[in-house]
Description:
This protein is α+β, with helices and mostly antiparallel strands. The protein has helices at residues 23-26, 31-40, 60-67, 108-116, 122-141, 151-168, 176-185, 194-220, 226-231, 241-272, 274-282, 287-298, 329-332, 368-384; strands at 43-46, 54-57, 73-74, 149-150, 303-308, 312-314, 317-319, 324-328, 387-391, 396-397, 406-408, 410-415. Helices cover 45% and strands 11% of the residues.
Amino acid sequence: MASTATLERTQSPIAPIDVSRFELYDGEDWQEPFRKLRAQAPIQYVPDSAFGPYWSVSTYKPIVHIESLPKVFSSSWEYGGIAIPGKVDELLEDEIRMPMFIAMDPPHHTAQRRTVAPSFGPSEVAAMKAEVQARTAEVLDSLPIGEAFDWVDRVSIELTTGMLAKLFDFPWEQRHKLTYWSDMGGNVELMKTPEGIAARQAALFEMGGAFAELWQQKLANPGKDLISVMLQSDAMSHMSEQEFMGNLILLIVGGNDTTRNSMSAFAWGLSQFPEERAKLEADPSLIPNAVQELIRWQTPLAHMRRTVLEDTELDGVQMKKGDKVVLWYISANRDESVFEDADKVIVTRENARRHLSFGYGIHRCVGARVAELQLTTLLEEMAKRRLRANVIEEPERVATCFVHGYKKVMVELSHY
């Protein structure tokens, strides 16, 4: 497919704003540029960025429209996949493409998703509840009261990595490797240089080797874990090495980052809005809605990407076959026309569930219920103990336009 960067694009009412720059997320300075884009250029062509030219879509309605047309806006790894770095028509230098079902179009996407989805169904998630509760209680009861510690390390990572290890039946004592592989898999900044690509791929091949070993064990002795489910299915039992690794990255990054960074947002976000925290502490029945609101406010994955398969017009702009389209969930979840006072955490927000953090349409996050279970359980167990996480310094953030999260959130626990 030929590069289309030289073709003319519809003129924007304002100069292009490149919201893929990592420094916007390092210092949490992304709100103002997106506010400007939503107001003046909700679909804008950015001819130049560290990731090449792209269409930037920053409001709710066109993102939902694009997500509902997979035959026009492709997710396929063959055209660069679901994140901003991938080139449409060629590999980045030294890049090995790793297919995964979120980065496929039907019918391949449908068959592989159908294999994995039952592991995250309502009855399976209900069966996980007791174990998630016990594990959350154990982690919370190990924390000091009135002493500073890193909430990301002791709570968010510990709970999400433990859950992943259980889902995969991964060796418990090696579970922190899952966190490392997830961080490497989701770091789009590494995709800018050959050295970064090589480092990322080395980590992912290490992951592939560890899981290939697990796959062999499960062939001999299958269980109910995700690896066993894959190898017993027609759609996934004969995957290539690249496809196996691709799906592992998807399940590990998806299972880790959404939940982990929403758990960190629980500590940080509520500390920014103490009146809302007081409402939640006074009325635990608000927890399920507060969970949705925190996922909306945080938006743990800032964007998804699509590739245009045929010339098309959207809201008056002309998109050409082969164009890269970046859907900024992080901005759509702050779209003032959908969410009033969108920059605030409001635990009673009536339409909190309308957030796009899990995506929309055929690629909506397959593990959303597990993420909600883990977050709800954390808030419930904190409420049972009447525990409050008091943030004592500005968080350290992940400096990337893909995973929107926290490296470190220092807190002290107190009772209320």
